[in-house]
Amino acid sequence: MVNSNSPNVRRVVVLGTGGTIAGRAASEGDNIGYTAGEVGVADLLGGIDAPEGLSLEAEQVAQLDSKDMEFDVLLQLARRCAAWLSEADVVGVVITHGTDTIEETAFFLHSVLAAGKPVVLTCAMRPASSLSPDGPQNVRDAIAVAATPGAEGVTVVCAGTVHGAPDVQKVHTYRPDAFSSGDAGPVGYVEEGVVRRLRDWPRSTGNAHSKMLAANVGAALRWARVEIVTSHAGASGAVIDMLLQERAAGVAEPMHGLVIAATGNGTVHHALEAAALRAQDAGVAVLRATRCTSGRILPRADDRLRDAGALTPVKARIALMLELSEEPAAA
Ligand code: SIN
Predict the structure, then answer these.
(1) 179 alpha carbon to ligand 1 midpoint, in Å?
(2) Whole-number mean pLDDT of the chain?
């Protein structure tokens, strides 16, 4: 794994969190009936030669199916990234991750890390046990991005494409090229180990939150509870009203924030909107995020609920959780 004993060697650290890239199926022909998060990150690096002048180091931070990702794991991941990036000879960090919530993890890290060096998440759509797995090439490409001079910020690399954390979305259930950067377009492509960059690296927005994380090192942060409710034809306010009743009854972890996955330019079914306004009046922080896969919400003068701009509902939820978790969550 480590390719050189030279004291001048630069390191890329690969953090494992599980996912299909670390998945194993009973037969090599099975690309869907596998268990995610089975193969250790050191084994994923087994057949990969580090580029000249670079050494690779592996650390297993978690081993899960990313649909089950939790905020405490994200926090641990952010802390491990910050610790490794602070070492002078570490040029970048690669994270192997499941595709299903990789965009949430990428956006979280983009929001909390003041990442002057690159943090590159990568993944696979086929398990490690597949006859033709896509993981090994994705890992090679991610290492190439992490080692690129001048690279910075949080990106996701999949199928030869480099996506910025604020823009990336999983858009396909099955194809190896499962991600899109929507209107923004990709940051670039990786071609034979070389990055062809099309636009600026994503600038990390992490400063404010990284101070919060630093101040809470070792502490189990109390995350604000933020729910997502979708607006759709025939929607009602029933779910929001139940959440408000729970809050009024004094449950241990009441809803503090609410994201409405809104239609089009942030519009909300009238019954759901009435309930969301009741929630807002009761002290819940409410954000509208569009269900559309591209574009952003353009604000209107008569808006009564804040909008999340270009953030998808899942990213808006992370932004709101971070906003509300700055201070200890109030019941
Ligand atoms: C996961 O997200 O952990 C499983 C699915 C995948 O990686 O494609």
Answers:
(1) 13
(2) 93
